[in-house]
């Protein structure tokens, strides 16, 4: 039986997100990013399309590598301004019943003790529909905002992240037993203190001394864990911790070996490699005919902002593209910014040489992922072919305009994929983790490291 195709919507609490300049399109609503009606309408659209989740990116810091200034990012709304994503979720959860929420939070600047409570609170309020995209950041501007001169080295950030995960696992899994909360009105006892345990942790970067997690056990305890780095060190982290991995790349030739590498490393750690769900970014532009889809794509492209595209790429790679000529070749540079975006255009595909002009064309719509244009039938064909070539499990669907592109997917593509038996006809029951991995699996199980910290009755 063909593998079912999973869909996340890929967005950010900002303007335009992956398609700089498209906020100027008359049908785009992302300039309303700071008002709840936009997000409520988007959540309803995604639930209508039976999307698995809304995957919310986030970036701490401003893209100020281009021209050594934030001006280009500010002028072109290149993920600036941006608001905190977690605060959106309660409102969207209130108007949906099944839509999951994978939210990005940067652990480099977020103490684990209050963060663990924030995620448990959201898991309660959404009845178990929360996932956490674990990131370590890549912008020096974020480090400066946190009082540091520059960000920690790339691989060192992952070493710190491993320690961070141990702390939050202890809080989420090891502090409260499942039956600690009694809610016993007759005896007037809400919680049995003997079933709540104090947490201690001391490592190179974190110290928690004799404290309890402030939240009672939530439906999932640990949120569904996403991870988004595919550098060698990122793959190691994903193989150990991630349940879902988000990756981006312009071609199947780049994505397929990354998928295989993470599955191989997970298997070496005793995990089932098939149970790490791989999502890659893709932008989908639909029309009732091929000509209509092509015309829509051409219309979108007329709104691309080249300076905004290079501001994004400079931030992602740590390379200042303001001094490059348009036809200059992009070459590999080793630095402490994100590694995957630069590898995509320098080393990922040895058969292609990228120029700065190519980068603008590519990043201008859909960021670092492929753009698929056509009728529901032809796009479904291309997606199925992509799945066969890459062994991914799902797509993080970026947009050119929002919510219009997601409305098209819900109303045009989803019926076609459903007809082919490649898309769910209804949501599964339960928490986000159960929807992804099966009924009765609301909690992480061994050999995932989080399960080893759980105390008392197993859930």
From TrEMBL:
Residues holding FMN: 58, 104, 154, 158, 231
Superkingdom per UniProt: Bacteria
Keywords: Flavoprotein, FMN, Monooxygenase, Oxidoreductase
A Gene Ontology molecular function term of the record: monooxygenase activity
Pfam families: Bac_luciferase
SUPFAM superfamilies: Bacterial luciferase-like (SSF51679)
This protein's name: 5,10-methylene tetrahydromethanopterin reductase
